[in-house]
Amino acid sequence: MRLDNKTVFIGGAGSSATGWSIGKASCVTLSRLGARVVAVDINPEAAEDAAEEVRKAGGIALPLQADVTDMEAMADAVARAKSEFGGIDVYIANAGIGKIGGVAETEPSDLDRVHQVNIQSLLIGSKLIIPIMLEKGGGSIVTVSSIAGLRYIGYPHLAYSVTKAAVIQFTRMLAHEYAGRGIRANTVIPGLIDTPRIQANVAKAFSVDGDADVMRSKRNEQVPMKRMGTAWEVANAIAFLASDDASYITGTELTVDGGITGKFS
Ligand SMILES: NC(=O)c1ccc[n+]([C@@H]2O[C@H](COP(=O)([O-])OP(=O)(O)OC[C@H]3O[C@@H](n4cnc5c(N)ncnc54)[C@H](O)[C@@H]3O)[C@@H](O)[C@H]2O)c1
Predict the structure, then answer these.
(1) Whose CA is nearest to atom 4 of ligand 1?
(2) In sequence order, what DSSP letters do the residues of 188-205 get, joined into one string?
(3) First to last CA, the chain
(4) Is residue 224 domain-resident?
(5) Cα of 197 from ligand 1 centre, angstroms
(6) How far, in Å, from the CA of 85 to the mean position of ligand 1?
(7) Which residue is closest in CA terms to ligand 1's atom 19?
(8) CATH classification at residue 137
(9) Which residues are bridge partners to 179 per DSSP?
């Protein structure tokens, strides 16, 4: 699995707290495989942190601040990537947010924002990056959904689940539109992954006082493999789909979930 001389553009490349998020682990994993990494995040410190980890591992990274829902900011980021590295070969759409709650707790404005970040960003990124990929004869797009986009996961997470379901179908549509023009598009579907974000955002769905240790042991217990996944295990799946080793794979999903999606209860 190699990505030599490829430029990878990662939206949501940082981590929302200290530790290894999926985006940050992907930056380092893809860099170790030979890629140059354009690390884009709404939080400039998170983008810089991801880029610094790439440099520490001996790679090349360009950190950029942009909100993936902002067409102008994304156009600037894509233009910088092109001028620094001559093009974009791989686009990883990893930025994602959620709002815990069901119908009563979710306002239309909540759904709007989650939709913008989780879905509208895919349209913006695709509109900007696909023409650059086509100039070079093709590329690979990897989007990041969630098992919450497939199933009810035990607590109401309405806006997140609906938009993560849409990520899968958006990606299939992309794959079919561009299959004859050298661009592949696939989705990674992570299960319960132990990233810094879940400690802050998901813990309150598992215990009244939002105790992170209670949440962690309950999540571990739910999984047939008896543990949450790591950001690195998701990054490996992203790297595979991004690489030419997946050259005949498009319009499909790779679930990385320790077996939980196939479980009855
Ligand atoms: N952690 C899990 O258990 C899990 C499970 C399934 C799916 N996922 C998905 O994986 C992805 C990464 O999750 P994570 O847990 O590593 O999250 P994280 O919050 O640590 O990382 C996401 C990064 O995206 C950035 N970001 C958020 N909104 C942005 C925007 N509008 N523009 C640019 N950057 C933005 C954040 O600043 C952060 O650095 C998300 O799409 C998430 O929905 C996570």
Answers:
(1) 193
(2) EEE-SB--HHHHHHTGGG
(3) 36
(4) no
(5) 7
(6) 25
(7) 16
(8) 3.40.50.720
(9) none
Is residue 67 one of the residues assigned to a domain?
A: yes
- Each residue's pLDDT, cut to its tens digit, for the chain (265 residues) gives 799 999 999 999 999 999 999 999 999 999 999 999 999 999 999 999 999 999 999 999 999 999 999 999 999 999 999 999 999 999 999 999 999 999 999 999 999 999 999 999 999 999 999 999 999 999 999 999 999 999 999 999 999 999 999 999 999 999 999 999 999 999 999 999 999 998 878 888 888 788 888 999 999 999 999 999 999 999 999 999 999 999 999 999 999 999 999 998 7
Which residues lie closer than 8 Å to 208 by C-beta, 6 or more apart?
A: none
- Which two tokens mark 231? 């950001």
Q: Give 177: exposed, middle or buried? Use CB within 10 Å, 0-12, 13-18, 19+.
A: middle
User: What is the DSSP-derived secondary structure letter of residue 203?
Assistant: G
Q: How many residues does the chain have?
A: 265
Tell me, yes or no, if the pTM score tops 0.90. yes
Count the domains in the chain: 1
The boundaries of the domain holding residue 248 are: 7-193+230-254
C-alpha–C-alpha distance, residues 158 and 155, integer Å: 9
In a domain, 225, yes or no: no
263, amino acid identity: K
